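Appendix B. One record, verbatim.
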Amino acid sequence: MAPVNRTPVRPTTTPVTSGPTKPRTPDEVRAQIAQWAIKQANDPNIGYSQTAGRFGDRTDSNGHRYFDCSGLVYTAYKQYGINLGGNWTGAMKDTWRSWADQVPKNLSQMKPGDLILMDGHVVMYTGDGKCVGAQTSHAAFQDQVKAGVDAQHYLNRPDAIVLRPRVSGEQVANAPEGMPLDQSTVPATDSVSSGGGSSSGGGSSSGGVSSSGGSGGGSSGGVSRPSGGAPAPSFDPGSLSGLSSLVGGDDDFFLQLLEALAGDDDGALLALLRKRFPNMSEAKLSQLANKLSASKAEAKQVLQLRQQLQGANAFQDAKASPVDLGAPTGQTGDQLDAGTTPELMGALQSMPRTIAA
């Protein structure tokens, strides 16, 4: 009797269709929103701007569209009818209790679509320890809005909080079909109640999520700014005579200004100036931010110098003597235009020793 060929037969499977997917749970909505944001970051025709249509809703003559950090996350959620309480980071920070639950700063408890919100910057978590965000205009155009960024870099910031925007049952039902949903990014269970809408208070505490109450939805349209703050500076940013006139002896603000200048996100500087000078027009704010941005490299040098000066006495000694980080011989900070190292050093040398603490 001839031997029987027992070569195993592999079962065939029907490939999963790659068409648009309708999300069925709050977690799926947020995961799909995160995938949409990744798609924007991977589009070589999308860059960073705070003025040229920062919500990705305008196309210039080169076929380019633009987002800034808050514009990207705001637009991503707005497509699904979810309001983040404002379209800039200051408004989001002021109103988040009315539309989100706070999540521990722990990657094991974070989910795609969570927001990492900081002073002047926001990114969206996409899973696997990565996030997506509109970062800076000081990079190759295709790298200005980036996915796959290390989320821990932002979680290490002391001002960072992790927020999970609430998604109501109605918003799930009305969610549009979107990109094919990558099920590997969707948790097996929803840990946030779908009862709390994005514009309502409440929300349950579950799965490591700290629920915060609140009422009111927050602005859905134009920018709302906090009241108070410093009055608009009287100088013309186009003829700024020195950082010391801008700082006005405020050590904390000076350090924040240096950190914003030295950072990777252009939005942090503009957000800081907007908070400091709430009555200044957007045009003046942008003009001032552009003027100060010329000092990015010098700001990093000053921060490095500060870190090297371990004690108050050493810092005071450094202030008492000229510090040369490239200053022309015989010129002091107050003799040069803003945007130069000596100008920054002039402001640094005018600060009290408490800045070194």
